[in-house]
Input
Amino acid sequence: MRHILLILLALFILPTSSYAAPAPASFSAARSVLVASSSPGNAYAAGISVVRTANVAGDLSAFGGSIITAAPVSGDELLLAGSIYSRARVGGDFRAVGGSITIEESVQGDLVAFGFSVRDSGRAGGSVLVVAANASLTNGAAGPVTIYGNTISLAGDFASDVSIVASGRITLSASTTIKGSLSYESPEPAIIPASAILLGGIEYTNASYLPDVGTSRILAVMSIGLFLFVRVLGALILAGLLAGLFPRLAETVVERATSARPHRILLTILLGFAVCIVTPILFLLLALTFVGIGLALLLLITYAFIMLLSLIYAGILLGSLLARRYAHRDSVLWHDGVLGMLALSLLALVPYVGPFIILFFTTFSAGALLLIFFHFAFPHEERTSKLS
Output
């Protein structure tokens, strides 16, 4: 495993080391890597924790969870880690990708950093490119600076142009000097103290990243549409699972709708409607007393469970009735539940008539399920043969 990791690391940094002078290279890979001996050529390291305390005459490339470099690197430095801490001078370019990146000493070449938090208290001799949520340059830079981020703070002497695109606040410390121009885009003007010196002038573009009214409406409609799609998809899946896993229960509900007399169907609907209306009132009455709070909570959970089952079995009932009417099939299959729930979802879009049909099927399903559960809990001989 260690050899494979070293090969992948060498392939990853090949463009960096292709121009380096031929010299013996050092490779280190382990769970925790501590390198205390200098390297005459390029150095490569990989591990969960990588600490280097010896000089590197060539390039340094490291990959890990946490990287600390405490010795100078004569060539370029390429670091990829969750936490990066560079405490020594870099003679070439510095490139890093990580969560938290801290640079304490100077970088002679270019500095490129991508991370959540980037703090540079050294000074880059070349150009600087930083992409981070929070970026801080406290000792200036010799080359042009480009920063993309949220909260950005600058301090020190900047010898060239500074370009910033920020979604949050930009702050310049006292006595900051920018010999080139400062051009920035942000929702609000930067905080620039009177002691700051900007020789090349300021170019500010007010860029608000908050959506306007039209965009907000579009996003709201898209969010509602996505929510409805996910809800309908979940209902389809649940209806298909219940119809496929418990076909006998679904067939019993369908039998009560197809073989019972009209007055029994009406009584079942009235029972379901009464449960839908009376249960919340009973819950409120129980919740008013200290003793009945626990019972009210249990009743609320049971009520929510019954209502969910009633809505799902309303779709299964509708799909089964469609299957009996057009497919001439009495058995209930899983796709009957999916078809019925889809039809029920489409009926919900029909004004006035759609909600009434959904209420009809839901209240009937609630009444039928309550009767089935009651006869299951208190069986009678005359009902046993029908439900077995």
